[in-house]
Amino acid sequence: MILTKTILCLILGFLSSLVLGFFVVPFFKKCHMYQSISKTISKRHLLKEGTPTMGGVIFIISTLFIIIFLFLNKNIYFNLNLFIILCVFILYAFLGFIDDLLKIRFHNNKGLSIILKFFIQVIIGIFFFVLFLISGNNTVLNFYLFSIDLKYLYGLLILFMLVGSSNAVNITDGLDGLAAGLCTISFISYGIIAFNSPFILGYEEIGIFCFTLAGALIGFLFFNFYPAKIFMGDLGSLSLGATLASVSILLKCELSLVIIGLVFIIETLSSFIQIISIRYFNKKIFLKSPLHHHFEMLGFKETDIIKLFYLVSLVCSLITLIYILVH
Questions:
Q1: DSSP class of 228
Q2: CB–CB of 306/287 below 8 Å?
């Protein structure tokens, strides 16, 4: 039955996203929903000027529509863990929507201030932690050989993971189809983990959500893969990153995000290292950061970089799945 639901969710997510995309892409293009391309990026990216953004609405609306449809047909049941995931999914999408809207309105890449954005993320993190405790989840962080009860410090871990993961996916979203494809692999991995975690409240619903979103992302890739007809924007990237973190937290495999999301972490670290190196040593470590731009500067084709990153993500996800399912 679970296998049937999984295939159904993938297909429904894919079809709904594909159909919605055929309406959204031309509409956004007609409304000039695009932001300015940074002049500091390679000349190849300047050719993408005029490509509409905020395409994240395609997979976000599709996923929510399918989840509501399944709930009304009693194929899934409401629980607090699913509610937490949906809240994070929607709230971070709304945060990204405001950010994108400001960028489009003023034709720059500034958007919301860092302080205001972080303040909103703190509020969402507190809301998450309160619901997390109400739903009866424990605050134990499991390591390989031992575990530790973080108690209220677990709230800081939640905030760190939400902020870190959302920004990591946002930083990675610099090539056509890169972030969407990596997130597809990640959500499929967490869907498999969820279906093998019967001790988790609403584990089936979490798994169904993951596969539905993965299907919707595959449909979105039809419009987002090179050459992209639409970008996901902060609306999509912030929502995907935060949702990845929330799923790993609720499945009680928080540290798995380090391996499953390794590409996102490397991309973020490359930007961080570059900033520190330039600021304090006046020297560049990479030709351009984040890492995918470094490969571009070396002469790699955009599609080859994407395939390489997909492969690394797939291998990392398989290693994580084997470890978790065996143990």
A1: P
A2: no
Range with lowest mean pLDDT among 81-90, 110-119, 206-215: 110-119
Give the tokens for residue 231. Answer: 């970008």
Contact status, residue 201 vs residue 81, Cβ threshold 8 Å: yes
pLDDT for position 50? 78
Please compute Rg for the chain using Cα positions: 19
Could you tell me which residues are beta bridge partners of residue 142?
147
SS3 call for 299: coil
Answer left, alpha or beta for residue 153, where phi above 0 means left and psi between -120 and 50 means alpha: alpha
What's the CA angle centered on 99, arms 288 and 270, to 5 degrees? 20
Per-residue pLDDT band for 260 (boundaries 50, 70, 90) equals very high
Cα–Cα distance list, 197 to 161, 194, 222, 237, 249 (Å): 21, 5, 32, 27, 13
- Give pLDDT, residue 143: 75
Q: Residue 104 half-sphere exposure, CB side, CA atoms within 13 Å?
A: 21
User: Where in 68-203 does DSSP place strands (E)?
Assistant: 140-142, 147-149
Average pLDDT over residues 148-167: 94
Structural contact between residues 103 and 110, judged by C-beta atoms closer than 8 angstroms: yes
For residue 142, the SS3 value is: strand
Query: For residue 41, what pLDDT is reported?
Result: 58
